[in-house]
Amino acid sequence: MNEQNKQHYQEVLEHLRTKGVRITETRKAVTAFIINSHDHPSAEMIYQALLPQYPSMSLATVYNNLKVLMEEGFVSEIKVPNDMTTYFDFMGHQHLNVICEKCGRIADMDIDIPDVKHEAELQTGYRIAKSQRTVYGLCPQCQKKQVLS
Ligand SMILES: [Zn+2]
Ligand SMILES: [Zn+2]
């Protein structure tokens, strides 16, 4: 884990502790995995990756952990067109997910985004459960294919 990720990891665990969430070994593992992940894994992918180390962990446990992280605003879920799978993303660094509507490839776009959740709560009084940061389009590969065909 690099220094920045280590910091994110400590912050998340600290935040969960103050919320009274029990910090289990699997919670630590799922949290570390999503923070270190360079792409956007599904719950199934996280489950498969952690299974050798945590053989007693279930897929439901992974989902449950992701749900807690989502509720606290650390993780967002990503839906890709024509794909039933839900992908997950750690939102530690400010970025937008740019999704190809054809092949489902997800790219990260680094951009300073205002704290939408916080701003929305301030301005509307809603208690915000989640906010999506997603842009849809056609990736460079699919653009090339379109020209060829
Ligand atoms: Zn594409
Ligand atoms: Zn992302």
From TrEMBL:
It comes from the Bacteria. Keywords: DNA-binding, Repressor, Transcription, Transcription regulation, Zinc. Signal peptide: none annotated. Transmembrane segments: none annotated. SUPFAM superfamilies: Winged helix' DNA-binding domain. Belongs to the Fur family. PANTHER family: PEROXIDE-RESPONSIVE REPRESSOR PERR, ZINC UPTAKE REGULATION PROTEIN. This is Transcriptional repressor.
